[in-house]
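Why do we care about 3D structure at all? Because function follows from shape, and shape follows, mostly, from sequence. That is the central idea of this module. The next example makes it concrete: a single protein chain, its amino acid sequence, and then its structure expressed as C-alpha cells.
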Amino acid sequence: MCEIEAIADELGGDESLSQKISIVRANRGWDDPHRAVIGERPGSESGLQSAWPRWFQSERHSFEKPLLYLFGSETLNRLQMLSFESSGRGILCNDAETRRSIWCKGVQPALPLWLASHPDCTPYDPASAHEARVILRAALQALYVDHEAGFYYLAMHDDTLVDTGPIRDEDAEAAMRGMYRLRVARDASTNRDNGVLPDIRLCGAGRTLQRVLDAADLLARDWGISAEVWSCPSYTRLAREARTAARWNMLHPQSQPQRAHIARCLEPCVAPVIAVTGYAQHIAEQIAPFAPARFVALGATPRRDTPGGDFPSTQWITVIALKALADDGVLSAQTLESALQVYDLK
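And the structure:
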C-alpha cells in the first residue's frame, strides 16, 4: 500500500506531471488546486459526489488524462458507483483489504466475483510492492499509451506482506499477464534451488503467496518433495487469455495454434498444480480448464467468528499438495495419513 501511495505522491508532486495526470484520493481531503479530487467527507458513507472524470472525455477535449484512483471500498455497490463515476476508465487501487473485516481479504465476496466477470475490468491481486509497481507501470502503458479499453483494479496490501524481491525485466511482462515463476524447484536433499523438474507446482496470489512459499519449504523439509512456486497476480487475466486463445484455435483449425500464457508457463510438465487465493475458491478455479495436469484450487471461507475469514493455512496447503501426489500414485495413502497427524489436521 505504501508503494502505491509513494508513486501517487511522486506523480502528483512533479510539476511537469501535475497537469497531465489526475491523482484522486477518495478517502482524504486534499486542497491542492493542481490536483482534482472527488471527495468523500470524513465519516461519509455516501461515496462519490460528482462525475468529474467524465469532463476529460467531453467533446471539448481530444485527450484523456491518466486517472489513478486511490479509495477504500469493501462493498460492491460502492465499487460499482465508482466505476460509473469514472466512466469505466483509470486505475482503481482499493485499500479495503488492509482493514479488519469478517470478509475474505476485507471485501464482500460479491466484489471479487464482479471484478472477475466484468468484461471491461482487469483485476490484480499483487503480493508485494515490487509486483504492484510493475503492474501499475504496465497499466499506465496499456491504458494511456496503447489506448486499450477498460480499467484496471489493484488490491492494496501492507508492503511487508511478502518480499518477492525486485522483479527481473523478463518476468515483468509475465507478471502483467497473470503469472511468473518466483522459485524454481528445490533439491529436497539440500533444500537449495537447482531447477530440477518439480514434483508439484504451487501458485499463490496476494496475501496467500507467503503461505505458499512456506508450504514449499515444508514439502521439501518434511517429505522430500520438490515444489516450484509461481506468483499469480491475476487468475482472471490468465483465464481470459486462455479462453480467447482456445476460441481462436477453434475458429482457425488450419492455422498455427495460439498458446496462452498459462500454457507457456505450465506445459509440458505434468506435475500437479495447486492454486491458492485469499478470495473465495472460485477465483483460482478460473484457470482449472487450462492446467495441463491434476489441478486443485484453494480459497478462503468467510467466518463470522474470524476477522479476515478462514484462509488456507501453510499446513493445509502442504497436505493438499501431498493429496494431489497421492491421487497421482506418486505417494502412498500412508504418507498422507502421516501428514494429517504431524500437522494435527484430523
